[in-house]
Amino acid sequence: MPRTPAPAATPASAPAPGSAPARAPLRTGHRSRAVAAGFLLPALVLLGALVVYPIGYSVQRSLFDRSGGTFVGLDNYLALVTDDSLRTAVRNNVIWLVFAPAVATALGLVFAVLTERVRWGTAFKLVVFMPMAISMLASGIIFRLVYEQDPDRGIANAVWVGVHDTFAESSGFPRARPLPVHPLKAAGGGAFVTKEPVRAGEPVRLPLIGVAPGQMPEEARPARAPEAAPGTVTGTAWLDFTRGGGGRPNAVDGTELGLAGLRIEAVRDGKVVAATTAKADGTFALPADRADGAVLRLPASNFREQYNGVEWLGPTLVTPAVIGAYVWMWAGFAMVLIGAGLAAVPRELLEAARVDGANEWQVFRRITVPLLAPVLAVVLVTLMINVLKVFDLVFVIAPGSAQDDANVLALQLYRSSFGTDADLGVGSAIAVLLLLLVVPVMVLNVRRLRREARR
């Protein structure tokens, strides 16, 4: 009969099911988790003490009144939409949220694309990114000086006034005016005219006051008394003021200066028939065939106030001005991140598009921007979270008279919590509102990052 083969022997080294060695990996896993928990515990304690507890306490405190002893429910939140200063803060935060991140991201994109085409692109990137090394406080002080109203101190108005004066002639004698004893009278609109018509051969005196000697034109010289000249209407326009006193009104004294450059017009029947400007010593002459019998007019252009630029920190422009300072700081941040993304764009795609006949604008709009969309989203979301917390720039740049008009939620949080009329209930409600505004943006950003990681 055929023999049945004996079963193979079980190796002595193989452990039986349920034996002790099989539980060794389980104990190792527990030990690994315990070690991980030990390392995480200090971070979790700090997170709870510095983040979770303050959030919970702020939510609780926002439901109580100023003293913290009376439960008021949602009254503090209702104050955010009923109080004028709080409504202004919410409105300004919306303006910041819409414009500041978009402008900074757009400028960063333009800078990143253009710097790839110039030889000194690295130096340009360095200069644009340098403001990121400056604190918000220092930047606020810098731009507070930039936006000074006085053109001699504020560079923004110095440039603006320079451009304005290039296209619009500035006045030489603002606030100049005649005295009642002078032979001039107001003609409306800021102009002055002679009280009587002028005649050839009879010198005309046109004295004015109201101009500080230090503000006289540099070319002004001591005035010369008018002299009669046949066939000509002559005269002198001068500053009828003697330093130290002692001068005679309506008479040319030795130290009085001529109104150099003053425009003088001869007007007959409402029409200008002749015009001239006073010389350095104030003398002038008009042809008798046109000026004889006319009245002389000093037009208002001689006396209008000098243009002092734009009130950047006034109620109307203070928020755009502060946003401009923010963009100056953060455009470099956007440029660096976008530039890193641009370096990863396949050059073959760009070259293929150019070979197919696409111009540079089409390449930029149809290929570069879509490929940079993930990076642009990161920059935009980061800046949106950042502008919701902006405080330093507004607090430092906006003067006290315009701080209510430039108010934002973070500044109002500070004022409500630590100001002279502090209300911790309202301050806590603003803090909770800021958290609620930031959380959705953060959630969207985290989801987007997870989607990118799964690709």
UniProtKB/TrEMBL annotation:
Task: Provide GO CC annotations from the record.
Answer: plasma membrane
Keywords of the record:
Cell membrane, Membrane, Transmembrane, Transmembrane helix, Transport
In terms of InterPro entries, this protein maps to: MetI-like, MetI-like_sf, UgpAE/MalFG_permease
Q: What membrane topology does the annotation report for this chain?
A: Multi-pass membrane protein
Q: Which PROSITE patterns does the record associate with it?
A: ABC_TM1
Name where it mostly resides. membrane
What Pfam family does this protein match (any one)?
A: BPD_transp_1
Compartment(s) of residence:
Cell membrane
Q: Which domain of life is it from?
A: Bacteria
Region annotation (Disordered) maps to 1-25
Q: Name a biological process GO annotation.
A: transmembrane transport
Which stretches make up the ABC transmembrane type-1 domain? Answer: 90-445
Question: Transmembrane stretches, by residue range?
Answer: 34-56, 94-114, 126-147, 325-346, 367-388, 424-446
Family affiliation: Belongs to the binding-protein-dependent transport system permease family.
Q: What is this protein called?
A: ABC alpha-glucoside transporter, inner membrane subunit AglF
- Origin species, per record, is Streptomyces venezuelae (strain ATCC 10712 / CBS 650.69 / DSM 40230 / JCM 4526 / NBRC 13096 / PD 04745)
